[in-house]
Amino acid sequence: MKTEQRDYLQEHLPYMLKMLRYTYGQMLQEQHYLSWNAHFESFSIHARNLTRFLSNKDRGNFKAAEFVKDYKARIGDESGPLSRLQAQVFHLAKQRPKDVVAKFDTEDAKAVSDWIEENFKDFLSKLPRELRALFDEEKSDPEKDKAMYITLGPTGPGGLQTACTASPVTTTLKVGC
């Protein structure tokens, strides 16, 4: 197994699943509409990535079938909500929806989230034992996350903050020393 595949199972897939779960939960909370939009957009990115992974439609990235021979999740009933995400979030499309009825909403988010949860569980159940051992369920659970907080300094974050993966890691670099 390549190092990249190991990293995908140990860090990247758990992180995407954790962020999908976290942002979906945040979308159900009362908050400023800009915060809701930020969570919605993050949810959308993770939903798209996981959907493409599970359905083997992600060109240039790993696909589920590269871990489980012949695995492919069928999108089926979720094609409507996923099409709305495509039109509303992923492109500055000419035909972006304006009417509330045509927009992706929390019911759509639930349907997409449920589809991903069901198919990801199926994918994990079909992983060969040695690969299944690499996927740590706790890293994909926002409730079990070991919280890391970013503190602000006088000119912004106290150093340069890097993006995290499933295992929270932070590196502070001093700038201008």
Topology of this structure?
Layout: H1 3-27, H2 33-54, H3 79-88, H4 106-126, H5 129-132, E1 152-153, E2 156-157
Antiparallel strand pairs: 1-2
Helix pairs in contact: 1-2, 1-4, 2-4
Q: What's the short version?
A:
By secondary structure, the chain is mostly helical. It has helices spanning 3-27, 33-54, 79-88, 106-126, 129-132; strands at 152-153, 156-157. A two-stranded antiparallel ribbon has the order 1-2.
Description:
- This protein is globular.
- With 177 residues, it is mainly α.
- Strand 1 (152-153) and strand 2 (156-157) form a beta hairpin.
- The chain is built from 5 helices and 2 strands.
- The chain has helices spanning 3-27, 33-54, 79-88, 106-126, 129-132; strands at residues 152-153, 156-157.
- The relative contact order is 0.15.
- Strands 1-2 form a two-stranded antiparallel sheet.
- The chain has one domain (3-144).
- It starts with a helix and ends in a 20-residue tail after the last strand.
- Helices cover 46% and strands 2% of the residues.
| SSE-based structural type | mainly alpha
Listing every helix as H and every strand as E from the N terminus to the C terminus, the arrangement reads: HHHHHEE
Quickly count the domains.
1
Strands across the major sheet, in which order? 1-2
How many helices in DSSP terms?
A: 5
Compute the number of strand runs. 2
| Biggest sheet character | 2 strands, antiparallel
Distance between the termini: 41 Å
Low-confidence parts lasting 5 or more residues at pLDDT below 50?
Answer: 170-177
Helix content range of the residues, please?
A: 40-55%
For the residues shown, what is the average pLDDT? 81
Q: Over all CA atoms, what is the radius of gyration?
A: 18 Å
Backbone shape: globular
Strand content: under 5%
